[in-house]
Design a protein that fits this description.
The complex is a heterodimer. Chain A has a single domain, classed as 2,3-Dihydroxybiphenyl 1,2-Dioxygenase, domain 1 (Roll), CATH 3.10.180. Chain A is built from 4 helices and 8 strands. Chain A is an alpha/beta fold. Chain B has a single domain, classed as Arc Repressor Mutant, subunit A, CATH 1.10.10.60. In chain B, helix 2 packs parallel to helix 5 and helix 3 packs across helix 4. The longest helix of chain B has 20 residues. The N and C termini of chain B lie far apart (52 Å). The chains are: A alpha/beta, B mainly alpha.
């Protein structure tokens, strides 16, 4: 058994695809229409295109508990998931220049450094660098 | 301050207050990163910070969740994947990343990735050809 896909709930798939590709730098991998305006839409890391796919799933628009859960996490500032980077300060500055809003600026936490940003699709996302 | 930030502060106070210990393990991890291709062992790593082997082992595992040896193996496997994907021969890759025997390297590699180094290399080249073909379409 392998971990091939992990999901992130998004309120608007078009907007999410734009944010995750043009700002975060991911690459679109699959885009399959599922009817009702929904798509099986996945992105992957540019450097690891055969790695785990991130599914940008429209669950908040189709399943009320998903919408409530996403909103509760967001309000509490809890990241839905995290991505790793080699140089957090550099990535923070790059994203800041692109207009990305951070609720937590780069902060050391033991043997890692963390930052949290708003993905504009209803989620907090954490960046992590191992120290 | 939101709930998450409060939790972070709580965890920082309860788990990460010993800056000296954190400094030691970070130093060890960086040393492994910079020297993974060399002959590294716990005795050498412990001498770097004048700590005992067992203390270092405990500290590293506590803060990184795995032992220095496990970290070193993961680092070498990651580096070997990069070398194999860029065309280096299996035996040369084995010695370049610091393993001593091609046989144990193959066993370990398969254990970690599900493929032997030769299979991984073949698959990487196949993927590259496919990407090129797709780009040409």
């Amino acid at each position: 058994m392998k971990v091939s896909v992990t999901g992130i709930p998004v309120k608007d798939q078009d907007k999410a695809l734009e944010f995750y590709t043009s700002k975060l730098g991911f690459v679109k991998k699959l885009d399959v229409p599922l009817g009702g305006g929904n798509r099986w839409l996945t992105v992957v890391a540019k450097e690891e295109q055969d790695g785990t796919e991130v599914l940008l799933e429209p669950s908040p628009n189709n399943f009320e508990p998903a919408k409530i859960y996403q909103q509760a996490l967001f309000d509490a500032g809890i990241p839905y998931t995290q991505f790793s980077v080699d140089d957090l300060q550099q990535e923070y500055e790059r994203l800041l220049n692109l207009g990305v809003a951070f609720s937590l600026t780069p902060t050391a936490m033991g043997t890692v450094k963390l930052a949290v940003f708003n993905d504009t699709c209803g989620n907090n996302i954490q960046l992590v660098q191992m120290l | 301050m939101n709930f998450y930030q409060k939790e972070m502060n709580r965890i920082k106070r309860s788990c990460y207050s010993n800056k000296e210990q954190i400094g030691i393990v970070i130093g060890i991890r960086i040393f492994i990163e910079d020297n993974f291709a060399n002959d590294l062992n716990l005795s050498l790593l412990s001498r770097l910070n004048y700590t005992s082997k067992f203390h270092l082992l405990r500290l590293f595992k506590r803060y990184y969740g795995l032992t220095p040896k496990q970290y070193l193996i993961n680092k070498r496997i990651a580096a070997s994947k990069h070398h194999l994907a860029t065309g280096m021969a299996v035996t040369e890759t084995c010695y370049t990343v610091g393993f001593e025997s091609p046989c144990s390297f193959s066993t370990l590699f398969k254990n970690k990735t599900g493929l032997t180094p030769a299979e991984f290399k073949k698959k990487s080249n196949f993927c590259k050809v496919n990407v090129k073909l797709v780009q040409e379409l």
